[in-house]
Structure formats: structure tokens, C-alpha cells
Amino acid sequence: MTSSRSSLRRLALVSAAAVVATGCATSGSGSTTTAKSAAPSAAGAAGCDVNEKSPGVTATEISLGATAPLSGSGAAGGIGTRDGLMAYYSMINKKGGIQGRQVKMTVLDDQYSPAVAQKQMRQLVQQEQVFAISGGEGTPNFLGVVPYLDREKVPAVAPYAPSSDLGTMKAPHVYMSTVDYVKEFEILTQFVLDQAKASPPKKFSLVGVAGNVGDNAKEGMVNGLTGKNVPVRYFPETPGTSDFTPLATQLKQENADWVFLIITNTDTGQLIQAMQRIGYNPKFITWAGMADDSYIKEFGPISQGLYMALETADLNSDNPKVKEFVQQFTAETGRAPGKFDELGWSQAQLMTEGLRRAKAVTRSCLEAALQTITDFDTGLIPPVTWGPDDRAGVDAVGIGQIEADKLKVITETRSVTG
After folding, report:
1. 1, 72, 282, 366 — which has fewest CB within 10 A?
2. How far apart are CA 383 and CA 406, in angstroms?
3. Is pLDDT at 174 greater than 60 in this prediction?
4. CB burial readout 234-266, b (16+ within 10 A) else e
5. Confidence bin at 391 (pLDDT 50/70/90)
6. pTM for this entry
């Protein structure tokens, strides 16, 4: 990654107002946007057909959809992301909607299963006739529906599925807003090496969801260890494992200095409990899910000192945009937000920005508008950039640590070095 690209990826307040392609200069929350203005590229403009007949759009309504795990071991992330999406669109609808239309948002439970996700996505596209996919959560479940969305040419904006298979022109209708797991785990590995300079680790273990998720994490760790004599032992895991004692025993036998984790929140807590029961207490570093309040409340006492990636801003930040989000979400729901609520809210902000920029509410015009988004700063995630040949959006994460009953921010953003 170049240093100029890295400089765009910071969780900082950008105060300049934007004048977007449609002439609208307000964000979805009603405050001034912080996106840099960008005229549609030739490729983007040429792809906008204002006369196109797109499903899910009437004179008064835009129908959007997503799937997420609302039950099972991945439910914490799915429910939080859904709640963030729903709260944001509820607020937007009270303010008049988008382009004079109310947003109808439908989120179906995919149980973190690719097979169930495929069924639910067909229901959304064929029966619910959604215009586009807005957000959602879970990598293996979303990867299972990408070929179908590609065939149907359905835009998917900011799904939380940080696979290296996405964010490229191999999936041109999917617009990502989080760094992929390869880069994330390369960043985490480099962070651990920096932390352990005084006492270099002899070996690492990785526990990851079997398949693309765990494979991506391992690839990132191997990249981060280039030139280092530190082996990685990878232990694939099936979500919803009922007994973690055998896996904990294997990890203890391996006896790595650090254990990297990329499994669901519930499975993470239960695995750490099993490891402590058998007397194995290495240092831990995980993907971003453990930054959520729901994890810290349930498993914080056994997870002291655990490091994790941060893909969303600190909810206690002094950033005015974060404060505004907390106030608006609390007003809509009657409760304080968590990290996954924050993720869902930012997903909805990005869809709203694309729709507001669109010359017409058609799928081709939405995609043309998305491709004009440059350095768009929600304040909740690193600034997002898409383009005619860019679907990655973001290439940095922060680092946090559980300390007592709080999340301590170590660094707001960190990118791959070199």
C-alpha cells in the first residue's frame, strides 16, 4: 500500500462540506457531509441509465434488503448490524426519506449458513423484489450469495464480509467498506511483533472459521511473518462447536506464545473459558468482533488484556460525528449503541450517500454514483473510496484491548507497512 493511499485511511473529522453530483450537500444524518466532491467518471456516467426499470422502486418507496445471522453463534454481530441499519433508515424516513421516497429495509436470518443465505437472498431478490442489498453481516454466508447477486446484477453496498475474494473487480457489484481479512491479520501480526520486540515470540497459533475466513487470516499472518522465523499452526473451527475442550487441549499442546482468533463472539468466549480450565493462558489477539460491548459484558472478565482489530470508531470518542451517532441511535432505539450497531449505521449511511448522488433511482445509476465516492468520512469507519475500478473502500484498521470492563484504544488506524 502506498503512503498516499494510507493517508486517506484515518478516523479523523474532516470538516469541509461536500457538493455531491446531485447537488445535495447533506449527509444521511442531516449534517454536512465530509465526502470530497467528485464528478462522475466517464465510465460511471456512461453506466447510468435513467430510464432503466429497476425492481423495488415506486414513486413513494425504495425496498432494500440484507441477510445476517440473527440466531446461532453469530447472532450478536447479525442482530447489532441489523439494528444499526434499521435505526438509521427509521431516522431517514422521519426526515422525508431519500429522493422523496421512504426506505423499506428487510433483514432475513441466514443463521451464518451459506445454504440458508442463498435461500434467503433469493427470497429478497425474487419475492421481495429489493432494489439493492444494504449491509448485512457474516463472511461465509455472504460469499455464498455473491455468484447469484453477480448474475442478477444486484448492487450490494457495504456488506460486512471481509474476504479477499471481495473488494475486487471479480465481484463488481459488491462495494466493500472494511479491510479484508488478509490485510487485517497481516496488520495484527505486525502489531504483535512490534509489541514483543523485547521477547520475540517463538510460534503462533491461529483458530479460524474453516474455509475462506480462516484461510484468509492464515495468509495474512504468513505475509506479516515474511523474513521471520516464526511458524504458524492453523486450527480450523466449525461455528457453533459445542465442546471446546478438545481444541483447547490441542492448543495447549502446541503451546504458542500468542493465539490469534477469527471465530464468532460466542465461540471465542467459550474457547477462552475452555483454555483457562485446562491451565493454558497465552496472549490473545482477535478480529474486530470482540470490540463489541456484548462480548465485553459477557466475557470481559476472562478476556483481560485481549487485543483486537478495530473496524469502527471508539464509541466514547470526542469526534463530533461519533457523538452525533450515539445521540441519534439512542433517540431512535431507546438504548446506547454497541460496535455492531455502529457498523450497521455506517452501512446505511453509505447506501444513502449513493442513492442521494444517483441521477435516478435505478441500479445502474446507483452504481455510477457509488463510483464517485472518494474519501467519504462517516466518522464511524475509516474514510471510504470507490471508483470505476475500485471496490475495496478501506485498507486500515485500529487496534484495541480489553481493560477491566472497557475497550481501550491502542491506535485508531494502522495499515500494512512496507
Report:
1. 1
2. 25
3. yes
4. bbbbebebeebeebbeebbebebbbbbbbbbbb
5. very high
6. 0.85
Q: What pLDDT is stored for residue 199 in this prediction?
A: 87
- For residue 211, give the nearest of 181, 179, 237 by alpha carbon: 237
Contact assessment for residue 214 and residue 143, using Cβ atoms and an 8 Å cutoff: no
- CA–CA separation, 243 and 248 (whole Å): 10
CA distance 127 to 355: 22
Q: Which residues pair with 233 in a beta bridge?
A: 205
Distances 318 to 214, 309, 322, 325 between C-alpha atoms, Å: 35, 20, 7, 12
- SS3 assignment for the chain: CCHHHHHCCCCCCCCCCCCCCCCCCECCCCCECCCECCCCCHHHHHCCCCCCCCCCECCCEEEEEEEECCCCCCHHHHHHHHHHHHHHHHHHHHCCCECCEEEEEEEEECCCCHHHHHHHHHHHHHHCCCCEEECCECHHHHHCCHHHHHHHCCCEECCECCCCCCCCCCCCCEECCCCCHHHHHHHHHHHHHHHCCCCCCCCEEEEEECCHHHHHHHHHHHHHCCCCCCCEEEEEECCCCCCCHHHHHHHHHHCCCEEEEECCHHHHHHHHHHHHHCCCCCEEEECHHHHCHHHHHHHHHHCCCCEEEECCCCCCCCCHHHHHHHHHHHHHHCCCCCHHHHHHHHHHHHHHHHHHHCCCCCHHHHHHHHCCCECECCCCCCCEEEECCEEEECCCEEEEEEECCEEEEEEEEECCCC
Strands 174-175 and 61-68: unpaired
Burial 278-302 (b: 16+ CB within 10 A, else e): eebebbbbbbbbbbbbbbbeebbee
Residue with cell 466532491: 37
Q: Are 189 and 221 in contact (CB under 8 A)?
A: yes
Going from the C-alpha of 331 to that of each of 87, 317, 340, the distances in angstroms are: 9, 18, 17
Q: What are the C-alpha distances in Å from 190 to residues 239, 319, 417?
A: 27, 28, 8
